[in-house]
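Journal club side-thread
Mid-discussion, someone asked how the predicted structure for our own chain would compare to the paper's figures. Pasting it here so we can look after the session.
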Amino acid sequence: MPGSLEPLDLSIQIPYHFRCPISLELMRDPVTVCTGQTYDRPSIESWVATGNTTCPVTRAPLTDFTLIPNHTLRRLIQDWCVANRSFGVERIPTPKQPAEPALVRSLLNQAASDSNAFPSRLSALRRLRGLARDSDKNRSLISSHNVREILTNILFSNCNSESSNELNHEALALFVMFPLCESECICIASDNDKVTYLSNLLFHPSIEVRVNSASLIEIVLAGMRSQELRSQISNVDEIFEGVIDILRNLQSYPRGLKVGIKTLFALCLVKQTRHKAVAAGAAETLADRLTDFDKCDAERALATVELLCRIPSGCAAFSSHALTVPLLVKTILKISDRATEYAAGALLALCSASEESQKEAVNAGVLTQLLLLVQSDCTDRAKRKAQMLLKLLRDSWPEDSIGNSDDFACSEVVPF
């Protein structure tokens, strides 16, 4: 439900004791402090996190910062929500309690110890993953206990042992929930065996294992400044095939699309290996999947298209796909400023390389789109690309379309 409810809009008044004394909003996770006062958990946690050591209501010192869930009040609030649902009030969900530090330490020790039985270690990792899924706070707590070093050791140990595969995969699933610092990314990227192992997992029978492997590869690529190491990863045999296969065949698995395009984009940032992406079928797959992405992922997909259009083989592959040019034209001004910029850049590259692409673009209505673009509030880079494309396409315009376009055709264009 919304963070706050307006009594005038709902024609009801929220009971005073259901409101948090700090935020004055309906409490979703009421907790009681040592002074006996009850607050919404996020509000009192924020109060304490900013350095306050007194109770907001009584001003008495908080001698104990333990927050005790007020289950009775929470159930009363839920009942009130249900009773007033005809006014548009939605029942607040029962909150999951944050993990205890002692439990997290115990589970990590249980998972890390080679002397523990396989089922025990696997169970510990699964419980940790469940806790990490519950909340950002739990992930922050787990992350503070050296979890990445522990998971690295589990993930890349005994990779060829059949009995430990499931343990490795569970460690991988937990691993991708945490950001890595640059030194941790370098540790993985500089070890050929580790990179090869992740590459092999891209072809695992389990969809989740494949996607998690691609996710970790993307995290490592994005977390390093070393062009040499990034190039080494993108140069690994079959890595593009594995990532593109995820995009090609997992359209019914939304996380697969999201992770797949993030990883492909990170790989294509390496100029020297873009030809491998094209050879693996990136152009055909991106053209086929372009309409399946949400806004953020569509931007990334279009950025990848533009990157691949900067090499001859990429231009040729996209030009040969019947959907490429019409989709790029349709994308202009439809998704976001960034998406428009990338689409215009890709069209400019394609039309510069092929007269056939020029004709396709004109037939798809690119003239109208570009004229609208140069008059819009889009980015300067997008406008410059549009002006360059207008000038390039001038000879392909139908006679009755040139009209008042001289200003655009003669505009001074700044290369991008």
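Post-session note: The radius of gyration is 27 Å.
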